[in-house]
Amino acid sequence: MTSLTFYGGVNEIGGNKILLEDKDTKVFLDFGKSFSRRSKFFEEYINPRTANGVVDFLTMGLVPDIQGVYRDDLMTMAGRKPEKPNIDAVLLTHAHADHADYISFLHEDIPVYMGSTCHLILKALEERSSRAIEKEILNYKPRPYNIKDKPIPRKIHEFRTGDKFKIGSLEVEPIHVDHSVPGAYGFIIYTSEGPIAYTGDIRLHGTHSDMTRDFIAKAKEVKPIALITEGTRIADEAKEESEDQVYKESRKVVSGTDNLVFADFNFKDVDRLRTFFNIARENDRKFVVKINDAYFLKHLSQDKHLDVPNIDDENIIIYLPKRGSGAYQDSDYKGGEKEFLDLHNTWTAEQIAARPSKVLCAIGFYSFTALIDMKPKAGALYIHSASEPYNEEQELSQERIDAWLQHFSMNKFQSHCSGHARGKDLLDAVSDINAKTLYPVHTTHPELYKKVSKNMILIEEGIKYELKG
Fold first, then answer.
1. pLDDT tens per residue, range 424-438
2. In 40-51, which positions are buried (b, 16+ CB within 10 angstroms) versus exposed (e)?
3. Rounded Cα–Cα distance for residues 204 and 424 (Å)
4. How far apart are CA 106 and CA 85, in angstroms?
5. What is the residue-wise DSSP string for 147-163?
6. Residue 402 to residue 321: CA distance in whole angstroms
7. DSSP E strands: which ranges in 38-133?
């Protein structure tokens, strides 16, 4: 018997946790955090308790209560007996939290398969952040733990497009797709009943739309018995957007000022990183990165396919924030930050402020306290290159952004290209693949796929769907 059970991503955007069973083989397709479900119960000052292990997450439905999945230490903290894992693997599509984060809770004997670049991103995220129970994807420390305890590594298997590998009765073929983070993949999975295609997150208007088309072509070729597809933007109104448009619009406004320029974007979006890095170089400006974003340069520059500058590139400046004493003493900086202190290209806020026409600062809202030290002159430029607010929390953040900009008399400019496919592109892709059965996930409007699929399942959480060839 071959079946699919959806434990996340059902009538919501993100949180994908899809269990595929074939004969005696069980694999999860992603095991991500659901932001919408988590925010329903928790916020900044009320969070799941680390001291309670996985109990709070299980009780509030943030992870499924199923056997043979979770770490021994977390099961013990939950007052349960540890269980031998009965999941053979996790196939991770990409490094975004809504697909990856809750791997943190899984038993260490469950291997995780991910793209090589995805692995680099997760290494950077691990180095730049303090340890947290929801961010232990690559390794973990058994709870309760001593700070001196060595982390237990997970079994990580890397792949690239062109690789095929077997897990029990399954053969898996990962194929690159274009998304707002590099190292993103879809999967063609050959089961005993026939092929299954899983898109992960995709777009067709990005810099590498050819990669997504590679996946669509292969999925169409194998004639899948099931297609699991995302539908984040299926209901959005059509609009023209591209990374090239972001580049041209942003280059124009940067070239028109000799004041300080700030660009606010997700640093994991390497296309966007390159866009603003190139704009900086073309305008004789240094590209200023936050000290914790320098970890992304350190790791992603190792992938020759990405064309990402390293931390010692002549065009890169690392912004050194005030800590502790406020006097930039070495003792103010902890852990991995120390490796950046003595670099020739590490500048303080005062050094950046002294060269307003010679820098483009990749510094966003969560580092806005730097504005107090940089003292930007009226008319300094803030480029917001991320999605517009879509919930109450983001709207509050936007109000705060506007308040900071007004206080310092800065000018705001918006330019963005989404990481998710537009509605028409999604419908065309699904129609082209023409799978026997369609299972929409990662969307709040799955019903819209009825336009192109005669056999579409409006999935329910926790229901097992049997697949027939």
1. 999 999 999 999 999
2. eeeeeeeebeee
3. 10
4. 9
5. TTSPPEEP-EEEE-TT-
6. 22
7. 89-91, 112-115
Residues 326-372 pLDDT 10s: 999 889 998 888 888 878 899 999 999 999 999 999 999 999 999 99
**For residue 464, which amino acid is it?**
K
pLDDT one-digit tens code per residue, 98-147: 999 999 999 999 999 999 999 999 999 999 988 899 999 999 999 987 88
- Beta bridge partners, 382, equal 262, 412
Residue 469 burial (C-beta neighbours within 10 Å; 0-12, 13-18, 19+):
exposed
Q: Contact, 336 vs 131, CB < 8 A?
A: no
CA distances from 106 to 75, 83, 142 (A): 10, 11, 12
Q: What is the DSSP string of 287-298?
A: EEEETTTHHHHH
Phi, then psi, of 79 in degrees rounded to 5 = 75, 25
Contact criterion met (CB below 8 Å) for 202 and 179:
yes
Distance in angstroms (rounded) separating the CA atoms of residues 339 and 294: 10
Compute CA distances 207 → 8, 101, 174, 363, 419, whole Å: 29, 26, 20, 23, 10
Q: Which long-range contacts (CB under 8 A, 24 or more apart) does 405-412 make?
A: 408/371, 408/376, 408/378, 408/380, 409/378, 409/379, 409/380, 410/262, 410/376, 410/378, 410/379, 410/380, 410/381, 410/382, 411/379, 411/380, 411/381, 411/382, 412/382, 412/383, 412/384
Going by C-alpha positions, the residue among 41, 28, 53 that lies closest to residue 113 is: 28
Q: Give the contacts of 171 (CB within 8 A, at least 6 positions apart).
A: 164, 165, 189, 190
Please count the other Cβ atoms lying within 10 Å of the Cβ belonging to residue 390: 9
Among the listed residues 373, 280, 287, the one whose alpha carbon sits nearest the alpha carbon of residue 328? 373
Check if the beta carbon of residue 215 is closer than 8 Å to that of residue 175.
yes
**74-97: string of b/e by CB count within 10 Å (b at 16+)?**
bbebbebeeeebebbbbbbbbbbb
**pLDDT, tens only, 394-403:** 566 889 999 9
Pairing of strands 286-290, 359-362: parallel
Q: How far apart are CA 300 and CA 209, in angstroms?
A: 21
Are 300 and 123 in contact by the 8 Å Cβ rule? The answer is: no
Q: Which residues contact 213 (CB under 8 A, 6 or more apart)?
A: 204
> What is the pLDDT averaged over residues 27-44?
94
> How many angstroms separate the CA atoms of 298 and 306, rounded?
12
- One-letter amino acid at 235 equals A
> Which residues are within 8 A (CB) of 86 and not within 5 positions of it... i.e. 6 or more apart?
26, 67, 68, 69
Q: Which two tokens stand for residue 28?
A: 């999860």
Which element (helix H / strand E) includes 170? strand 170-176
